[in-house]
Amino acid sequence: MDGPILSMGPSNYVKYDSTETLVTELTDCDFDDIRPPSNMTQCDVKNNLGYRLRRRREVLTQRKCIVDISFVLGVLGIVLVIIDTELILGGTIHADSPVSTALRVFTSISTSCLMLSIVAYHVTGLRLYMASAGFEDWRLAMTATKWFKLSLELLVCFIHPLPFLNVYIPTISVVTNSDNGSILTARIIPINAILTILMFLRLYLFGRFVVVHSNLFLDTSVQSLGALSRVKINAQFVFRALMSSTPGIVLTTVMLATFMINSWNIRLCEVYTDPNSELGEFTQAMWLTAVTFLTVGYGDLIPRSYCGRLIAGSTGLMGVGIMALSVAVLAKKLEQSRSEKYIHTFVQQVALDKCRKNAAANVVKQAMFIWRLKRRGPCRTSALLKHKSKLLRAKRAMQEAQFTKSHLSECMVGPVELSTGLNDMYGIVTTVKDDQKVLEQRIANLETLVVNMSCQLHDVRDMLRKMK
């Protein structure tokens, strides 16, 4: 799901005036009812919007089935490998036993079917791209990026423990000597153990499975809006949407999956390197993964093999990233909304007004006490200083309340308030301009009236002169 499913080209059948009209028509009507006119040629039919929508729905259904099959085959291969490994580590069977060989043969068969489904997935996308872009030859549509993606997916899905392959590779393990020092010791581990760990890379199919079953990906209106707005409805879009709507479920799923998979892989590395390792128990491996994931690192358990240390390092990096996302999500959830901020600020302002009024009343009261003491004549200096001290504290409290209230008012000015203020100012300026134009028109009319009256007065004066 790296690109758009279908390019929405020009239509010869459906005419739209706006996005809302198009989405309403596409949502209310059935795709089977969008039929091209009988006088259309084959090229016109392919450029028709109804044909493209029906074609997209068919491809979506095919891709969904292919992705479901790929996901089931990938998980089936991982389950078979886990069963085989646990039986070998438990001493129930040996690596050369017929049961282990049979499990690996079934894993190879499921892997072959998985690779065929991956090829079918890319072939379906290639056909759709050729139909939307107008390519006749598939070699023109296959770019270097598509070849690289196909090759990488086939390589990742091919990795699995091979039957009849009992090859051992050398590795290095850290061993503690009698002097509590660390020395490097050469060890050998089966290559199938490394292939078992790398087999978990095919879990990327779970992300593709979530994408094709997402309502955002299957919704016709969302796909149409994405095509019209040139927004790719792909895995990144769906993941961001899920992080916005259900961040807790996404982070919890990723965290638990990372915790369980890395714990099992660390145990596998340590047991194959040293059968008497203290990390042979799965609970011990889970404890090491937990303290590494949370970046605590007590040091009571440490991986001895380089393979285990590599997995522990990747676990720490994953923990840092997931914890950062968790903190960001938690901070966003704990942040007050705009309405809550307004209510909280209003309550604080009411409390500050009350505090300011009480401080002002204390100022007046202490000023009256000081005036009475001075009016009586000579008084004790201690009583006068006491009331002056209370007067200064009351003034300081009144000033602090006023300053805090003004600071709260300034902090509440955000982009929305600024935009509202600018809109109000624009409205006031527009009103003043309109009133100014009206006033100028009235002044012009008054000036015309004054000129007419002056002309009439001159005529009257001339008539009076003639009568004399």
Describe this structure in words.
The protein is mainly alpha-helical and 468 residues long. Helices cover 73% and strands 4% of the residues. It contains 17 helices and 2 strands. Strands 1-2 form a two-stranded antiparallel ribbon. A hairpin with a 5-residue loop joins strand 1 and strand 2. It is flat, with a radius of gyration of 40 Å.
Record keyword descriptors for this entry:
two-stranded antiparallel sheet; flat; 468 residues; mainly alpha; 17 helices
Helix content: over 70%
What gross morphology would you assign? flat
Number of separate helices: 17
Order of helices and strands: HHHHHHEEHHHHHHHHHHH
Task: Give the class from helix and strand content and strand pairing.
Answer: mainly alpha
Our Rg estimate from Cα atoms comes to: 40 Å
Assembly state (oligomeric): single chain
Point out poorly predicted stretches.
4-34
Strands, helices and their partners?
Blueprint: H1 19-28, H2 42-47, H3 49-89, H4 98-133, H5 138-141, H6 144-158, E1 168-176, E2 182-190, H7 191-198, H8 204-212, H9 215-218, H10 220-228, H11 235-245, H12 247-273, H13 282-293, H14 306-334, H15 338-375, H16 381-411, H17 415-467
Antiparallel strand pairs: 1-2
Helix pairs in contact: 1-10, 3-4, 3-8, 4-6, 11-12, 12-13, 12-14, 13-14, 15-16
Summarize the structure.
By secondary structure, the protein is mainly α.
